[in-house]
Recover the amino acids of this structure.
């Protein structure tokens, strides 16, 4: 191979690298815009969502958009007292879950016993109100059973924890950030 052929071949390879023969500048721009769009869809915070997930697998079983000041509750039959219990929660201005009310028909093992909040009788329940107590760790954990009714309530929705897939797993209820992609998925 002579020097001119080697030099020409080297110049051709260099030109190929510099000219972006495989990707013109407009294609790089389109790729950059697409990558940026995908990153933004999955990272920009577009609000908050209330999430019920399988504690072991992390699979989301239910979710809904939530706002500061929203309330949700769960109702169940206490396994020892065999009486209904209602617990009501509120989302604070700092996105904390606050225990606000506890409704019980009796006092006993595992039921409220402290003199906190305002207590009154409503519809046969002892109602402890205005607790404003942050939930420990910022999340609720449940081990629902199919043996007794257990429901979760948010706005007009009801989730039955005492039926599959909820009764077969440990449940985690928490508030998470919503991405733009999450908002788009909720539309479909």
């Amino acid at each position: 191979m002579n020097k001119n052929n080697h030099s020409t071949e080297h110049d051709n390879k260099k030109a190929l690298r510099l000219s972006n023969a495989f990707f013109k500048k407009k294609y790089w721009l389109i790729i950059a815009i697409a990558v940026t769009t995908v990153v933004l869809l999955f990272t920009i915070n577009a609000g908050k969502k209330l999430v019920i997930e399988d504690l072991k697998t992390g699979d989301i079983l239910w979710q809904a958009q939530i706002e500061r000041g929203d309330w949700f509750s769960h109702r169940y039959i206490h396994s020892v007292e065999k009486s209904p219990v209602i617990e009501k929660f509120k989302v604070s201005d700092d996105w904390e879950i606050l225990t606000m009310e506890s409704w019980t028909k009796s006092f006993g093992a595992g039921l409220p016993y402290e003199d906190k909040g305002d207590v009154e009788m409503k519809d046969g329940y002892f109602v402890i109100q205005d607790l404003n107590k942050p939930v420990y760790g910022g999340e609720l954990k449940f081990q629902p059973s199919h043996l007794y009714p257990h429901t979760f309530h948010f706005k007009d929705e009801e989730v039955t924890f005492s039926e599959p897939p909820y009764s077969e797993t440990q449940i985690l209820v928490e508030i998470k950030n919503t991405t733009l992609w999450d908002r788009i998925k909720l539309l479909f």
User: Anything to note?
Assistant: The mean pLDDT is 81. The chain is about 25% helix and 40% strand.
